[in-house]
């Protein structure tokens, strides 16, 4: 049985940004994903848990790993023709360290921030 994607009412979607970048950091891994807000689906994601990246990274949780995740996510967004994203930071996240590394490398890949 195939479930159709959830579509939000138009009264809500006109206030949402179409693509939102969300980041999650644990003590072991770094992950980032871009969510398409109107349909609430994941447009693209990258994580230091991926098998391909595990071998190329020295550490899975430092700023260098976050920078690599941002670069890979930016390249994947360009392949899917997503030109711009907005950033959603949690309350405790500041534009510093790993967060800055992910955002800067996404922008460096050619994605515009809203």
Automatic annotation (TrEMBL):
Highest taxon, organism lineage: Eukaryota
The keyword Ribonucleoprotein is assigned to this record: yes
CDD domains found in the cross-reference section: Ribosomal_L18_L5e
Keywords, comma-separated and alphabetical: Ribonucleoprotein, Ribosomal protein
GO CC term, one of those recorded: ribosome
Stored Pfam families: Ribosomal_L18p
One of the GO biological process terms: translation
Keyword Ribosomal protein appears in the UniProt entry: yes
One function term, GO molecular function aspect: 5S rRNA binding
Family: Belongs to the universal ribosomal protein uL18 family.
Alphabetical list of PANTHER family matching this protein: 39S RIBOSOMAL PROTEIN L18, MITOCHONDRIAL, OS01G0256600 PROTEIN
Name the record gives this protein: 50S ribosomal protein L18
Organism the protein comes from: Rubus argutus (Southern blackberry)
Lineage: Eukaryota, Viridiplantae, Streptophyta, Embryophyta, Tracheophyta
């Amino acid at each position: 049985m195939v479930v159709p994607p959830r579509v939000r009412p138009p009264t809500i979607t006109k206030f949402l940004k179409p693509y939102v970048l969300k980041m999650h950091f644990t003590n072991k891994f770094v992950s980032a994903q871009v969510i398409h807000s109107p349909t609430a689906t994941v447009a693209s994601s990258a994580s230091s848990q991926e098998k391909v990246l595990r071998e190329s990274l020295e550490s899975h949780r430092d700023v260098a790993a976050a920078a690599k995740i941002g670069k890979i996510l930016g390249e994947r967004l360009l392949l899917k023709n997503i030109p711009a994203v907005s950033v959603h930071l949690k309350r405790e996240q500041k534009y510093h360290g790993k967060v800055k590394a992910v955002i800067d490398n996404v922008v460096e890949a050619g994605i515009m921030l809203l």
